[in-house]
Design goal:
By secondary structure, this protein is of the alpha/beta class. 48% of the residues lie in helices and 12% in strands. It has a 6-stranded mixed beta sheet with strand order 5-4-1-2-3-6, sandwiched between helices. 30% of the residues are buried.
Length: 241
């Protein structure tokens, strides 16, 4: 039985490596081409969306002041859907809308998120389902610039233009920003901007505001932030419908 000489074996290995290198080059070129095409398409989509009217309000939870603000927006634009991501307790939001005699039918509460990143993680599939092209992001100064940059990266990656609305808060902020937190969130946002094109996480804790069971909440008891101006209206009292 003849054996391959060491030289022939080396030549064979070299040819295999060269072929592999050429294959990797082609794959890299293909990925660059796809990425460039995606960026061009997304940029064109964003430019077009920027000139369109807002078609969704997206409220980042963290302060009842943000929900009080979006109620006023809902009075002016009742046809625009509202998504509140892990905001105040459900009955507090219900009472704010009810107090202003605003319809509850176009308001949705997302209860899965536990961080700013997860606000977008769970919120993007919902906004995409609604076919949103321009969103008004409602947050507060204590949430900036991190929330704005994350929104521009994550929503922008899906062709959704972001218009930021800053609502002033009173009292001690519930969160504290740092450049380390901002850097970490922006890094994973860049990664998720790509992965979220094919992965669509679903939140099982989505509820329509009109479906909130206020009597059940009253039996259990709940408290609202005093900035909401609700006093003890929602605690062990019968709602005025």
């Amino acid at each position: 039985m003849k054996r391959k000489s060491p030289i022939k074996s080396l030549i064979s290995i070299k040819k295999s490596l060269v072929n592999l290198w050429h294959l990797l080059q082609k794959l890299t070129f293909g990925l660059y081409f796809i990425l460039a095409a995606w960026l061009i398409f997304t940029t064109i989509t964003l430019v077009f969306a920027s000139s369109q009217p807002v078609d969704a309000f997206f409220v980042l939870g963290g302060s009842i002041s943000r929900e009080t603000y979006v109620v006023q927006q809902a009075k002016q634009y009742p046809q625009i859907p509202i998504l509140i991501s892990h905001g105040s307790p459900d009955p507090c939001i219900w009472l704010i809308f009810q107090r202003e005699s605003v319809s509850l039918e176009n308001v949705w509460l997302e209860k899965c998120a536990n961080s700013t990143f997860e606000n977008f993680y769970y919120g993007i599939p919902i906004l995409r389902y609604w076919r949103v092209h321009k969103v008004k992001l409602i947050t507060s100064p204590t949430h900036l610039p991190r929330a704005k940059w994350m929104a521009q990266i994550l929503l922008g990656a899906h062709g959704i233009w972001v218009q930021t609305e800053i609502v002033q808060e009173f009292g001690i902020p519930g969160n504290h920003e740092s450049w380390l937190k901002t850097g970490l969130d922006l890094t994973r946002s860049l990664l998720w901007a790509i992965l979220s094109q094919i992965i669509q996480p679903q939140c099982s804790g989505i509820i329509k505001l009109a479906k909130v069971d206020l009597p059940d909440w009253q039996n259990r008891g709940f408290k609202c932030e005093h900035q909401g101006g609700l006093g003890d209206r929602g605690i062990n009292k019968t709602p005025h419908c």
